[in-house]
Amino acid sequence: KMVKFATLLIIPALLAKVSQDRDNAYMQQRNRKELLFYIPLVLFLGVFAGIRTDYNDTIVYIDTYNLTTSGLADLFQNISIGSDYFGYLVFKSFVKTMGFDSQIYIFFCALVPCIVYLWFIRKHARKSFFLAAYLFVVCGYTFIWAAIKQCFAISLLLVAVDALIEKKYIKVAIAFFAYNCLPQGNHIQSLQKLLSKTLQKRIFFLL
Question: pTM of whole model > 0.85?
């Protein structure tokens, strides 16, 4: 287990470090970020979490997914409109209807948060992507293995925060609408903490 844990720490750290160094050179020469080492970093973390068959609530997620019926005729029967899990139920039923098995479902649920988290970290950790990515792997990465619905909610929240920073208020509204379809609770309170009074008025008007 220690060998696996060391591998999990060392490989992403090396990829993040090389990606950061190449980013600095690319931004000076070509005014764009490099992808050669960044994409393997995202895929490594996504695949590592996506191929799991156990850990925390993974078995529960797999069992409930296997119990979900497939087919367009059953798509809406799997969805309880008004449920706190409405958005997640839509997603799960759609994936099952597309014919994917439970392992592909777990893989997708791991890869998407990894893509969003690392995109957000890379974009906003301007001084040290390497350090931010390393801290993410050490402190927050395993959360992806345990809480699928919550990780999707956090992903949407990060998209909303990024849009808010860039003053793209329509995008903020869309992200928060999707966020409200996931089981987080206290959505309005979360929104209020993020926004200034002026921005609150604009976003609430859009919502």
Answer: no
